[in-house]
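Q: Structure for this?
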Amino acid sequence: MLQLSNDEIVKGIRSRNKNVFEAVFKQFAPSMYNIAVRYVKNEDDANDMVQDVFLNLWKGAENLDERAPINHYLARATVNTCLNRIKKEQRQEVYTREQMLQPIPTANSHSQLEHKELEAQYRHALEKLPDQCRRVFEMSRLKGLSPAEIADQLNISINTVYAHLTTALKRLRVDLINKS
Amino acid sequence: MNNQTDIDIVVRYLEDPENELLKQQLNEWIQQDPGHLDIFLDMKAMWQGDPLPAPSAFDTAGKWEELDARLDQAAVPAVAAPVNTRVIKMNRRYWWAAAAVLVIAGTWTLMGPGGYKTFATAQTQDSLRLPDGSMLYLNANTRVRYARSFGKDNRIVKIDQGEAFFDVKPNETLPFIVNAPEVEVQVLGTAFNVKAANTGVKVFVQSGKVSAAYKGTEKKVILTPDMEASLKLHGSTIDTHVHKKNNNILAWKTRTLTFDEAPLNEVAEALEDFYHVQVHISNPQLADQKLLATFPNMALDEVLDIMRKTLRINITHKNDLVDIY
């Protein structure tokens, strides 16, 4: 991955340098997609939203604030796109209701076999996590406890909980991507 | 707007992580939906500049290709150089020149018909590629022409009326010249931008160097970035003025108006230019009010509504008349 300073990135974006756009896209678009898909619960919409954020950045490139880190801009833009999308959907209420009733498509877009394989891989990846990290992750995902509750039960700070969850997600995603 | 906590709490928390109220709101929000925790974790990692790896459902390379194609098609307000060339040939000394020229119609004789190609726009904006590869972007109600020999023994573009913006391909042997009434603008280096009003021609430089001169005289000025020169019709003096970074000279192309603590009369002028309306400030006490805002491609009524709310002023808009009081 291209290692650029924020200064270089902002300059590159302001002059619409495609290499810089590509580097920024590849670094942040996956996270933005993941945020959007969890929020709007629709893969196509989430993909559209990511594209929209970058298209808007492209169109207004010369107005990009040179002082702010690009990742902060992208985080805000993602949130705003999410909020706008929801507002739009509230206007088209019927459509919204249908959308919300749909489960996250990843859950049913695999055949059962694929699902089983994936689950095995997932368990395997889970086992490789450090103990405390796995414990926190399982409390969060299997028992459905909130970070605050986990922090309480394990007598650790909520920031530590977040850190464990981040590490877990990082490793799980790397493991699952490498296998699929 | 309702008061319910929504996804923006994540960014508000990250901006101010010590704030207890935000912490609490964040925790409540995370518990609303099982997906919210993931949103927060991804956002937090992103905020710290170390994003989590791609989720397996996201096809990074494929989606980049899709975006790549869409960027090429996107109608880019051409303030910057065309992208591909700039990226690939960055280290070659490219002289980009960009000029927007707005002039009054009429007053100026042409070399005679036949030898020219003419392009004109009515209500809409348009763009064209000149034979030498330079790009020309036309605002509405603009007419330009160039000789058929353009690019061979000359690079001269004439503007009959309106406003235009140039992305000029460098060519040291053939200087790029924009002919406006009484005024000649010549590209010396990188990027520049020219504007003229109905009292004369204004030349504004975005980057690089540009010379502007009264035709047939020695009167000439060399401009550097953020400088604007005003050349009055039938005049002989050239006034120069250095603009601050946020100005709206290129707003017609970027479709974005930016005001950085701009006094209301300056705002009114920019709105008049951009939306083709007349803006009248009937309460003189309001002239001192300052506006800090960015309006990306927004309808006039939306802009006025925001101004009403932020400045707590009254504005009416009927037909082409805007009254501020």
